[in-house]
Predict the structure.
Amino acid sequence: MADVSLHGIAKSYGVTEILRDIDLTIDDGEFVVFVGPSGCGKSTLLRTIAGLENASAGELRIGGKRVNEMPPAERKIAMVFQSYALYPHMSVYKNMAFGLKFAKTNKADVDRRVRRAAEILKLSALLDRKPRELSGGQRQRVAIGRAIVREPSVFLFDEPLSNLDAALRVNTRLEIAKLHRELGATMIYVTHDQVEAMTLASKIVVMNQGRIEQVGAPLELYHNPRNLFVAGFIGSPRMNLIKGQVRSVSGGSVTLAFTGAETSVDVVPGTLRAGDEVTIGVRPEHMADAGANTIALEGRIDAVERLGEASYVYMKLASGDDVIVRSPGDVEAAPGGRYTAHLPGRALHVFNAAGQSVQFGK
Amino acid sequence: MRPNIRPGRIAVHIALVLYTILAIGPIALILINAFKTRRAIFSDPLGFPDARTFTTIGFDQVFTKSDFGLYFVNSLTVTVVSLGLIILIGAMAAWALTEYRFRGNTIIALYMAIGIMVPIRLGSVSILRMMVELNLVNTLTALVLVYVAQGLPLAILILGEFIQQIPRDLRDAARCDGVSEYRIFASIILPLITPAIATVAVFTMVPIWNDLWFPLILAPGDGKQTVTLGVQQFIGQYVTDWNAVLASLTLAIAPILVLYLLFSRYLVRGLTAGAVK
Amino acid sequence: MSDITASGVQPAESVSVRSRFPVHVAVFLAPALAIYTLFSIYPLIDTIRLSFYTGDESGARHFAGLANFYTLLTDPAWSGHFWNALRNNLVFFAVHMVVQNAIGLGLAMLLSLPRLTGGSVYRTLLFLPTMLSVVIIGFIWQLMLNPLWGIAEKILSAVGLGSFFGPWLGQETTALITISLISVWQFVGIPMMLIYAALLNIPDDLLDAAIVDGAGPFSVFWFVRLPLILPTLGVVSILTFVANFNAFDLIYAIKGALAGPNFSTDILGTFFYRTFFGYQLQVGSPTMGATVATAMLIIILLGVLIYLFGVQRRLQRHTF
């Protein structure tokens, strides 16, 4: 078991910077998810930790030891690839035992480890099959099994569920979570799917354009996004964003004007001045109910998505802002009709013109 | 980049450059020496021709003592006509075999595939007999017929795989519009297979242009020689005339060299694509 | 192969939908079938038929059963040449299998290195000799190795191997190997390209997985890449086999139909040519020529069958 720490990790190909100044500490036994849009550098970061890419700068430590110069096999890591990367010419057994061959593990030990992993993953009956004779879900489990037999300190997963169909994905997600509980190993998991990130992670790392935008527990990111990017990325459907302006400031409280209404919000003192442009963020589920301090916002309905337990009402406000309201499942609404969203006094997120939260750290 | 298996790139390039020199050095030497005087060919074979050693006497010899221009036209005619027929006839057959399910479909496909593995050369005794009976000895027609028969199997295989990749909807849409099968082939399929022609060309054109066996057996005289045979006969006759030998080789190499360097991208792509299937 | 049995079943359901053998299908197939049958399949069959006949001076032909084959394999005037040609042909093939495939594999490995600068230039140049006529290549090397010109000797001396040089093409002991190597030199581009394409086809993830598993460069090659390109090596081998047992042009260009010195470079192709057309005082014989051709056909078919049923079945093609 081991912790992982990254100090000032950077990676560039020629002039293209893939990763810049990544600082991150992952504690022993944590389940960390790197999440971000495609091309944000999350896979490159994972491959750098694995040793498949060399960092251009910075220091990488696993279990307290500097591993920058170490080949992947010596880093005590195991990786599960998006394509599973099973050796097509080897049986399931040989696929799992392949890495142990180079670790000079004795035969009996190899056999014991492979059979144990197969048992955990319900692969015992399939050990003699070739990968092409397996279903997608079974291949996925073999790929995980190959990682388990190495008994690594750190598991690395590179979008392992993206090739599975929706039903299988939920199942496997639960299995991976269970595996984490049972093995207690450090796991680093890359995905572009924020639902996977929210459900699996003990700590989420949101990445964008080669940088870390925010690190935190799932609900922490959900409730206190540090900036507009994180606010928009975490949560589905995404957070509503409405343009506004600072009317007046009095200490830690500012009055904001937007779409014909006004409200007061607590912010970190000194972060906003009167006249500043701001973006107000509010999650769809906070806009359905009228209450004591809510502000009613009228608009025209563009579309209604009915999910059963809830209905998403897509509407356009008089100001021109588009918002989504998570309403009760049986709400009466139809495209073209009028609808009223209710802006709560609390649960408002305020971002300055640079997109940074002005409430963060308060 | 995989840092841990990264070999010394310089060593890799040294190995590749050395082998490249081995691969094209001999050809380059022939081309260089073809333009030198006999004395220079022997005294300084590795040197480039300069003002003192430059001569085209070899080429003059080739053109006065042989019908090189004619051989070239013969080769060109045989190759182009054969390739054209192989593509047209081959595409028709490939289309029929891939598009329609009918009794005997698979058997015909297997029958056509025999020719990929069994060299038609082995039937030469009977081919010559037939050509004598048909009065086609020493004609380019004989060569074209044999080369078409030889090239068809592979062409049908390659074109068939290519036609299979043309979306079915395209043909079915035409059928819904009441277009006849012939028109579908002529106005939809033929234009769409043009990219495959490069691949077919690699596998059929080059062997035809370079062949010695059938010209030697079927059309060895009467001014019907191809370049390959013509050069072979010429060198056999003037083997001691180094200038003429080198010039004739250069003349045989040059057109292929130019075409190859112009189109190598397509040829190489065709070859690698053919392997991927 | 299983398609044959399937074809008996398939039409049953499609017959009702479409006519049994539509006219347009016949039109599309007819030209190819006609030319191919007439100038490829018929001559092959006719050649086999002819091998069972003998001709006399008047030109009349008599059915002779297996007499020609008996002559070919046992008559001292024939069998010595036949076995010699077969043996030489096997040597010719063995040199190709070992040297050509090894060099082709090596070059393909180098060319498939990620982000190799100038890769396409190397590929183009290395493949160049393959494009030229065998005859031209034969003459080029005849000149290169000609002691009179002495260029090969000069180059060898430059790297300190001058004393090693000899009239390789003229010596009975070295001529066949030399010619085989010339052929290898020309055709190494084909295995190189096919293997290169196969290597590119292996997903990077698989190689990464092997590295994470602790495999070094050699182990990655031996345990992962090599097994995955085996089917391609199989294809290369059978292509080489058919081409080698059908070769003629190179030896005819360098050594003539007599495949000297003292038949040391005689292979089945040149033997077939001499038998059919005659040489020096020996009169050519179409029926004996057909017999030799049939023998070659049997050898090639044997090779192909061994490949199809012995080798190819074991080489699982992998899709990634």
In short: Chain C has two domains: 2-50, 77-312.
